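Re: folding output
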Amino acid sequence: MNSVSRPDPRSRTALSSAMAGAVDLSALKARAEAPVRPPQAPGAAPAAGAAGPFVVDVTEQSFQSDVLERSLQVPVVVDLWATWCGPCKQLSPVLERLAAAANGAWVLAKVDVDANPRIAQAFGVQSIPMVVAVVGGQPVDAFNGAQPEPQVRQWISSLLDAVRDRMPGIAEAERGAEAPAEPEEEPEEEPEDPRFTAAEDALERGDWDEAEAAYQAILAQEPANEQAQAALAQVRFLARAEKVDPTAIERADAAPDDVDAQLAAADAEVAGDGVEDAFARLVDTVRRTSGDDRDRVREHLVGLFDLFAPDDPRVTAARRALARALF
C-alpha cells in the first residue's frame, strides 16, 4: 500500500489554530481516538448541492461536520475556489464528476475562499484553485492549479489506496458502486486508427515536428484522448532531449539559481535514466524560486511526470515532494 505524505506539522497546527472557534477540535480528537463506527451506507450520505450527494458546499460554520468529522470515515477532498477564478471553473467540474462516480468513497467539499476567508487562511492558501485531501481530521496531501482529469483521477486513486485499509467507508462505498456482473463477451479487435499510425511513422523516422503535429491534430478533435496526450508529451521530450548540451548537468550544478540550466539538466538526467535525480532537482528548484520562475519549473516537472505511468512510484513520490515544496 502506498503511503500518503503528511505536510509539515506546523501546517496542521496552523489549521487547528486558524479555525479555533469555528470548529471544536477537541471533540474531533476524541472521536478520532474512539473505536471506528460502522461505515455509513453509500446511499445515506447527507444531502448536498446540485452536483450530487457527495459534493457539499462548505462554510466556516459547517467545516467541522462536513470536513473534519466526515473525514473520519472517508477522505474529504477540499476544493478551494472563487467565482472570479478561471482555472477553478475548469477544475471544479472534473472533481464533481469524479466524486459522483466514486459513490461516496470520498467526498468533495467546495469552499468559496472569498466567503470563507478563515478556511482559506487555515490551509495557507496563496493561489487558487487549491485542492487539499483531509483524512482523519488532518490535511495529508495537496496540489495547486487546474490539472488534467487523468492526473486528478490518479491523485485521488493513490490517496484512496493509501488509506483504504483504515477507512472502512471507502470499501463500503466501492461495493455499492459495483454493477451486477455482465456475461463476458469476446472483445472485438479494434481497427488501427490511421491518425496514430501516421504519428508513429513520423516517430520512427525521428521527425519530431511531424509527429507532434499529428498528435496535436488528434487532440484538437478529441481533447481528452489520453493516448494522444501521453504520446505528445513523449515527442516533446524527445525533441528537447536530442538538443541537450552534454555538459548540462555540470553547468546546472555550478549555477543553482539559473532556472534554464536546471530545466536542461533535468531533461539530461531523465534521458540518462536518472529520473529520481531529475525530479529531486526540480523539486529543490521549486523551493528556491517564486513567481513566474516557480511556475515554469513546476510546469516542466509536471510535464516530465507525463512521460511515465501515473502509478510509477518515482512519480508518486515526486508529486508528494512537489506538494510539500509548494505548500
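--- second protein (sequence, then structure) ---
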Amino acid sequence: MNRSSQEEAVCRLLEKRGVLTTGEIAGELGCSSATARRIAGRLAENRIARRFHGGIRRIEPDANQSIPFPLREQWFSREKRLIAETAAGLIARNSVIFIHGGSTTTWLGNLIDSGSVITNSLHLAELIRQRFPSDEGPEVIIPGGTLDRKAGILTGTRAERAIAGYHADAVLFSARGIDEAGILDTNDATAGVARTMIEHAHLAVMLADHSKFRAAGMARLVPWGAVDILVTGACPENLPMLETIRKQGVKIITVPCEEGGAR
C-alpha cells in the first residue's frame, strides 16, 4: 500500500472510530511505528486530525468540512487520471459542459481543449489557463459564490443562481461518497452547486474512485435516478454495490483500480 493509500485508509478509520493510536494505525496498515507517526503527523498538518500523545483524534465535521485539495489530489492519482480520461472520451468536442470541482475532475483540465467549460473549481480554471495562455482552448466561465479554501471551489446560493442561468450538454462531477441510494457530499453548500449543475445538464456523468463507496457525507446530493453514467475503479469489494446501482438505470464504466487501494 503506497503513502496516499495509507493516508486515505487512516482517514476512513478516523471517520468510523474518532480516535486512533499510532499502534492501531501501524496494526491496521501493517507498517512500522515510525511510518504510523509520520502519517498521523501529515494528517494533523493538513487539519484533518488533531494530535495527542500516542495518536490522533478526528476533528468534528463542523470544524473540518472538507479534506484539503493538495492532500486529496495525491490519493489514487493514477486511478483518478484514468477515470478522467474515460469520462472525457464520452463528451463531444465543442460541447458546453459543467465541471464540479474535485480532485478527480481537476484532471479534466489536462484533457479538454474546445467548447465551453462552466466550473466552480479555481484549480481547474487555472490549469486550463496555464495550458492555453492566449485565446485558444476552451472558453472558461466561473460563477460567483463563497470560496471553500480547503477544496478550492466556489459554493453557496450565489454560485447556484449563476449556474442556473446556463444549460450544458453534460455535467462531470464527483462527490464525497456514494451508497446504494445515491450520492453524498461534504455539506449542503457543496451539494447544492453540484445538484444545480445536474439539474441544468442533458447528461450527468459521475467520476468516483473506488474509495468513494460507502464513504461518509453529511448532505444527500441526488439519488441514482439523476445520474446517467458512473465512471469508477473496478475494485472487487465494490461489485455488489455496482450491481445495485446498475439496476437503478445507471450505466457503469470501470477502469483498473489502483494497486493497494482495496481494503
